[in-house]
Amino acid sequence: MNKQTQFSRRHLLKLLGLGVGFSALKHTTAFAAERPHVVVVGGGFSGATLSKYLKKWGGSSVDVTLVEINSTYVSPILSNLVLNGQKSVSDLSFSYQTLGQKYNINIVHDRVTAVDKTTQTVSLAGGQSLVYDRLVLAPGIDFIEIAGLDYDKVPHAWKAGAQTDLLKSQIEAIGDGGHFVMTIPKAPYRCPPGPYERACVVADYLLNAKGLNVQVTVLDQNSAITVEADTFGQKFSEYGISYIPNAEVVAVDSDQKIVSYQIDGATTQNLQADVLNVIPNQRAGELVFLAGVNQGNWAPVNPLSYESTVASNIHIIGDAQGTAMPKAGHIGNSEAKVCADAILRSLNGIAPDPAPKTNSACYSPVSRTEASWLTAVYEYRSDKGQMLLVSGANYPKSSAPSTRNYQDMFNWSGNLFSDTFA
Amino acid sequence: MKTRIHSLKGSVLVPVMAALLSACGGGGDSTTSSTSTTSYTLSGTVPGTVIELFCTGGLYYRTNSTDNGTSEHPFSIQVPSGLDCHVVMTTNEDDTATRVISPIRFIEGTTSGDVLNLKGDLALGFVALEMDPSKIIDSNGDGVIDEPFEVTLPDDAEAVADPSYDALDSDGDGIPNVYEDDDNDGYFNSEDDDDDNDGYPDDQDEDHANDQDEDGVEDDYDRDVDNDGYEDDTTTTPDTTTPVTEYTVQKGRLLASQCAQCHGTDGYSTTSWDSIREESGDSSEIIEEMNEYSTAHIMGAQAIGYTDEERQALAEWLSGN
Known about the structure:
B: 321 residues; alpha+beta; heme (chain B); metal-binding (chain B); iron (chain B); Cytochrome c domain-containing protein (chain B)
């Protein structure tokens, strides 16, 4: 018996070119109709939520297999609080046990090596093949390479876990007179307020908690603070953060901790740091390119179903999809529910909801005691075929930092985490 | 290769062994674990037999038939609804030389399948299992019949399932993984320390390291890691999903699910923020709450993104209407 390869019976018959007649050779009856199989690749906020809600709403009418290479997920949400010692990586770690056991999702810890759109088959590094009726890709982001950048020396800490701990240990080693330099990627990137939040949290920690005389410099590849400009601008002045917009990162010396950048294409300038945190520009996770469903850096989708506009029966959700909605865990969870509903409808021959809504919310700590929030609701505009901010509501809405918001941040994240992983 | 069949790995498959060692028809005790989900009864009559079910999530159920003095011994076993199960029946279970292990294939009208998914109680009637090992087709002599034993169900049973991904029968031959014998050494993989006879114990072979009972479900996701018939941690498996076989369009459900990021799945909050599940069935309170917050509050800032009709639909769903 070969445990390495799993074909569905239907697929095997297809390969053998035998069709229904094959079972008739041995049995007078045909095998029962196979249940539809949804294969989900990527177990972050969007992929985990999608898997859960497919089973929650579809029950035993659908089989769901979640392929995720890691056995533990570390949430990037709240991970800036690891840097100032308010949280640990283990506080932000989630297993796939509940999804597997409570919702009867098949969890496979493996890596996808190929997607065959004709036979609707996903191949895994371990040798297994999965035949899908619908494939959902939720690979998150990948980074666009920067010359000389070695993440083991200059962490991005934009995917949480070991990278977060590495940056934390470097920050702990910084002394009086030290210089913390971080770079902010060009939009669109994962978690719009995140980099500004990080600059504030780190500055507050080094200056106020540790009482160090440290310089914090932010090189922003954007022309201005992209979100909550009032909140972050005010905090930047309060912390004495040096903010340099329009700074395109062109190279990094990872050993010397030197970042080279150009402002509006002018002469290259160098900045040396004691701790350097380069968050590179981003594109969809590699899987989107492997499956050939990208257009440029992202995957174009129909936002009613998140089905790819370039391949049928393949859906892309979360940070990798190419709508104008922000890239973040909360809205990834939101998109996943619209996608799950659309897939279940489609498997039952029903058109997707013509007017879905999604929402985004993010609490951003700016110190050890205060946080701000940012929120918006998106609606489907049939004239444009896009999800856009609900008109007339003056979105996005935000709130100045407060201690109340800091407490609410954990009420928000606690329910978001449990709605995704439990 | 193994020296003795009974030198099992640790406590793996102890209950199976207990079953094998017990006398034929030894009392009909069932080790069925209970969950809060609906259960159905699978029943029938057999020659003296152990009935085992290998189910979704690595769950394991077993019972013995009861010796009532006739040649048809009754059995019944409770199975939670919504579970896919392979059924295996073993006669002469106390003697490895004469036992006959019959995985069951179910025939229902014009379809058949090796997996049962009960939609109600199911009575199989008399299952005329073979008791004589010399009369079965068993090419490798392991006591397991080569082709599953066919049992015909009532046409309206709707109990035959065909999962697209069957972890419990990786090669799809109808013989559950625990009764496979990869290296034909006379020991099932689940009993064999070295399934592929490569000289390295299974726990050093990567593909087995994480599956104690070798039922095909990795330990992390196996609800009964040691196949003792009891769920390992019932606290992690509360009220699970109600199987839905037909999708019905519910506008309010999708909208209400968009509240769950902050208020918890189905409106049941796990933090000190409010639960918005309205147990009283009165949807007006949810609508009132949505209307009363200012947009300086995050609830108000969210609420203005939804129309009156949308608020009504999601409130009705959250209040069970």
